[in-house]
Design brief:
CATH architecture of the largest domain: Roll
Number of strands: 4
Mean pLDDT: 94
Oligomer: single chain
Strand order of the largest sheet: 1-2-3-4
Number of helices: 8
CATH topology of the largest domain: Ubiquitin Conjugating Enzyme
Structural class: alpha+beta
Order of helices and strands: HHEEEEHHHHHH
CATH superfamily of the largest domain: Ubiquitin Conjugating Enzyme
Low-confidence stretches: none
Strand content: 5-15%
Number of domains: 2
CATH class of the largest domain: Alpha Beta
Shape: elongated
Distance between the termini: 41 Å
């Protein structure tokens, strides 16, 4: 990795570790390798959102051209959000693409991702299924996002009816992650979710 990138990310890594703002917002970062080319981030679900109480892991890859190009970031923890792929964790956020500026930092990225959880942009989606649910049935979107936060990110709140549906399909031998994804994409209808699971 280029010397400028290493020096810069080393400084930013320390900044995140020492920042009161990131500590207060329950944002963490750790090294995956000693070369500072890959980091693991963690953000807490913001209060008063369906993600509250969840801990969301991020994969952060630092390119050799950093800080002139943005880090490559994706969610490792599965999440139900219009701007984040429910399958791959890919993120649609302008500062990770064409709105990146060399003055931005790792701290900026992590705080922006946490803010994105509180303010979805369904008209610029990464996941069309989630965005459609967000626009057409906001309450179901919130319940589904809360359920995903419970199942995948350890949030304490879940929906008992959704838990029963998950348990029912899991008892039929389907894998839990596939069950949650199928039910979520089929508006929690067991029959159509079962058809989807059987056809995959």
């Amino acid at each position: 990795m280029a010397n400028i990138a290493v020096q810069r990310i080393r400084r930013e890594f320390k900044e995140v570790l020492k920042s009161e703002e990131t500590s207060k917002n329950q944002i963490r970062v750790e090294l995956v390798d000693e070369n500072f080319t890959e980091l693991r981030g963690e953000i807490a679900g913001p209060p008063d959102t369906p993600y509250e109480g969840g801990r969301f892991q991020l994969e952060i890859k630092i390119p050799e051209t950093y800080p002139f190009n943005p880090p490559k970031v994706r969610f490792i923890t599965k999440i139900w959000h219009p701007n984040i792929s429910s399958v791959t964790g890919a993120i649609c956020l302008d500062i990770l693409k064409d709105q990146w500026a060399a003055a931005m930092t790792l701290r900026t990225v992590l705080l922006s991702l946490q803010a994105l959880l509180a303010a979805a942009e369904p008209d610029d989606p990464q996941d069309a299924v989630v965005a459609n649910q967000y626009k057409q049935n906001a309450e179901m979107y919130k319940q589904t996002a809360r359920q995903w936060s419970h199942v995948f990110a350890g949030a304490p709140v879940s929906t008992p009816d959704y838990n029963r549906k998950i348990d029912k399909l899991c008892s039929m031998g389907f894998e839990k992650n596939a069950v949650v994804a199928a039910l979520s994409s089929k508006s929690w209808d067991v029959e159509t979710a079962t058809e989807l699971l059987l056809n995959n």
